[in-house]
TrEMBL record:
Domain of life the protein comes from: Bacteria
Record InterPro entries: FA_synthesis, Phospholipid_synth_PlsX-like
Subunit structure, as described in the record: Homodimer. Probably interacts with PlsY.
Pathway(s) it belongs to: Lipid metabolism; phospholipid metabolism
Subcellular location, record wording: Cytoplasm
Protein name: Phosphate acyltransferase
Reaction it catalyzes: a fatty acyl-[ACP] + phosphate = an acyl phosphate + holo-[ACP]
Transmembrane regions: none
Gene expressing this chain: plsX
EC top class named in words: transferase
HAMAP family documented for this protein: PlsX
Length: 330
């Protein structure tokens, strides 16, 4: 029910998801008058779809504290309880991010060693992609929090890339060892002393997109600003290029000649490809789709959740956290 477009986007994506993933079943949570017609329309898939009706929805403007008190019968809350009780293996939501994180922490609980779960997603870089963690779950973070983000980010990056030792960097105001706040300096010392992680030092914002690290760690305030800035610059470049190519007859002719190359170039940076952020550190597999996601983008979030479920993400994260002896970090 969540996101900017709600069932108009999520339900068609779910139909395509079921059609392409024959070994997966889906349970839908939401309003009866929305879900029943969808199931009735797709009778060929009805055996793989179950529904649970909710009495309330969570608006994108709702505060997490308000949601915890008054929206316990929402589709989001019912879905998280089903995940907590083992009725489903993963949950995907395009709804209110703050509400989803607050409810997930309350209903699912945290993994051992995690004080504050983080939000992680992949970004395109010159060399491929990197994982950015945290994107806004925690506006401030201690060095211990950044250490736990690095551990979880390393596991996620290894699962996605197949690399046994992904390079981890801290996002900072400079690459020199003396730069940064006391928190960032302390986190760097902890990471450098953990020989199970490949800590490569500090990276600046431009270095993040250069692909100098597989995992970039920061607090949620910095991570959210970096993510939204990157998205804004990408839109500016694409829109400006489009306006330029449409401005004159000769640029339109040039656009026609370059169109195959432009399409291939654009696909590399298509936001839909990177849709799906993990709530890393909660005791369950929860994927947050962008609220403004298209049908193709939401489908990618569903596929991402299925992949992480097959890879047993929560168990992998918990194993890494326990092995790191994170309790000794301050």
């Amino acid at each position: 029910m969540g996101g900017d477009f709600g069932p108009r986007v999520t339900l068609p994506a779910i139909f395509k998801f079921l059609s392409s993933q024959p070994d997966v079943d889906v349970r839908l949570y939401g309003a009866q008058d929305v879900l029943l017609p969808f199931v009735q329309k797709h009778k060929s898939l009805a055996a793989r779809i179950s529904v649970a009706f909710s009495q309330s929805d969570i608006a994108m403007s709702d505060k997490p504290s308000q949601v915890l008190r008054s929206k316990r019968d929402s589709s989001m809350a019912i879905g998280l309880r089903a995940l907590s009780e083992g009725e489903v293996d993963a949950m995907v939501s395009a709804g209110n991010t703050g509400a989803l994180m607050a409810m997930a922490c309350t209903i699912l609980g945290r993994l051992e060693g995690v004080d504050r779960p983080a939000i992680a997603t992949t970004l395109p870089t010159r060399k491929g992609q990197c994982l950015l963690i945290d994107l806004g779950a925690n506006l401030e973070a201690t060095s211990r929090h950044l250490y736990s983000y690095a551990i979880m980010g390393s596991v996620l990056a290894a699962l996605m890339t197949g690399r046994a030792d992904p390079g981890i960097a801290l996002l900072n105001v400079g690459e020199e060892p003396v730069k940064g706040s006391g928190v960032v300096q302390a986190a760097a010392e902890i990471l450098a002393n953990d020989k199970r992680l490949r800590f490569i030092g500090f990276v600046e914002g431009d270095g993040m997109f250069e692909g100098r690290a597989d995992v970039v760690v920061c607090n949620g305030f910095v991570g959210n600003v970096a993510l939204k800035t990157g998205e804004g610059v990408a839109r500016l470049i694409v829109d400006s290029l489009s306006e330029y190519l449409k401005a004159h007859w000769y640029s339109r002719l040039l656009a026609t000649m370059l169109m195959p190359s432009l399409r291939a170039w654009g696909k590399r940076f298509e936001p839909a490809i990177y849709n799906g952020a993990v709530l890393a550190g909660v005791n369950g597999c929860v994927v947050k789709s962008h609220g403004g996601a298209s049908e193709a983008a939401f489908l990618n979030a569903l596929n991402y959740a299925a992949m992480l479920t097959r890879l047993k993400l929560p168990a992998r994260l918990q194993e890494a956290l326990v092995d790191s002896d994170i309790s000794s970090a301050t």
